[in-house]
Fold this sequence. Notes:
The chain is mainly β. It has helices spanning about 10-15, 20-30; strands spanning about 40-45, 50-55, 65-70, 70-75, 95-100, 105-115, 120-125. It holds the Pfam family HSP20.
Amino acid sequence: MMRTTDIAPLYRLTVGFDRLLDLMEQTSRVEPMTGWPPYNIEKTAAESYRITMAVAGFGPDEITLTQTGTTLLVTGQKNESDESRQFLHRGIAGRSFRQTFNLADHVSVTGASLDHGLLVIDLVREVPEALKPRRIPIGAGSPAPARIEGRAEAA
């Protein structure tokens, strides 16, 4: 038996967690996965990731990668223009696919390659300097407020 949880009350108890709550709500609405094409997600370094998808039979011109904000969409559409081929058995799947990956903030695709039927997508998380932790100096014995490094004073 599948149980659902109503997270609507969390929206009024939190500030700034909208994206996290939206992702939690989205998981309850996810359609059953077809399992095709199979893929791996691995962490290759502290801030680097790799998605490897098994897309045998697809060429680079038949696969499209699109990143919009924090969503990566991978689609595959076979070009079946060669009608002169007659298959006696067709065991290599050539059906179209659409796979969506939700990425964390500041994660972007740095490259993709297709080799031996494996689509490899490299990703990296790059936090902008403005969002990284910074040290704030504490002034001693001065009645004026301490100046924060890296910020210009307003005139």
